[in-house]
Specification:
Radius of gyration: 47 Å
Main location: other
CATH superfamily of one domain: ESAT-6-like
Helix content: over 70%
GO biological process, one term: vesicle budding from membrane
Family: Belongs to the SNF7 family.
Pfam family, one: Snf7
Strand content: under 5%
GO cellular component, one term: ESCRT III complex
C-alpha cells in the first residue's frame, strides 16, 4: 500500500516543480536572447544563420510558453490544495465547536431553562418587594395616617396665621 500524500507534501512537491520550471524558463530566456543577438548580427551578413536563429527563437518561445502554462497549472493546483486544506481545517474546527456545544447543552433542555428563568423572575420580584418595603419611610411603633397628618398640619398653619394677626 502506498502511504497517503498529505496536503503539505503535495504542496512542497508542487512548489519544487514550479521552481524547477522557473529556472528552466530563465535558462531558455537567456538562450532566446542569445539567438536574437545572433539573428540581428547576421541579418545583413549571413541570412541563412539569421533564419536558423529565428527558427531556434520560435522554438524557444514556444517552449517557454509551454513551461509557463505548466507552471500556471501547478500554481493553480497549489492554490486549490491550500484552499481545500483550509476548508478541511475549518470543518475540523467547526466539528470540535459543535461537539463542545453538545457537551454544554447535554444537561440543558428548554423546560429546565424556562423553569430557571421563571425562578429568576420570582426571585427578582421578591427582591423588589423586599427593597420597596425596606425603603418605605415608616415610624416604627407609630401608625401614621396621612389624613391625620394633613389635618394636624392645617392646624399648625392656622395657629401661625393667628399669631401673625395678633
Amino acid at each position: 500500500k502506498k502511504p497517503k500524500t498529505t496536503p503539505k507534501d503535495a504542496i512542497i512537491l508542487l512548489r519544487e516543480n514550479v521552481s524547477m520550471l522557473e529556472k528552466r524558463e530563465t535558462h531558455l530566456k537567456v538562450k532566446y536572447e542569445t539567438e536574437e543577438k545572433n539573428a540581428r548580427a547576421n541579418v545583413t551578413k549571413n541570412k541563412r544563420a539569421a533564419v536558423l536563429s529565428l527558427k531556434r527563437m520560435r522554438m524557444l518561445r514556444e517552449e517557454m510558453e509551454r513551461l509557463g502554462g505548466s507552471r500556471m497549472s501547478l500554481e493553480a493546483q497549489v492554490m486549490a490544495i491550500e484552499g481545500a486544506n483550509v476548508n478541511l481545517e475549518t470543518m475540523k474546527a467547526m466539528k470540535k465547536g459543535t461537539e463542545a456545544m453538545k457537551g454544554i447543552h447535554k444537561d440543558l433542555d428548554i423546560d429546565k431553562v424556562d423553569q430557571t428563568m421563571d425562578d429568576i423572575r420570582d426571585q427578582m420580584d421578591l427582591a423588589n418587594e423586599v427593597s420597596e418595603a425596606i425603603s418605605r419611610p415608616e415610624m416604627f411603633g407609630v401608625d401614621l395616617d396621612d389624613d391625620e397628618l394633613n389635618a394636624e398640619l392645617e392646624e399648625l398653619e392656622q395657629e401661625e396665621l393667628d399669631k401673625q394677626l395678633l
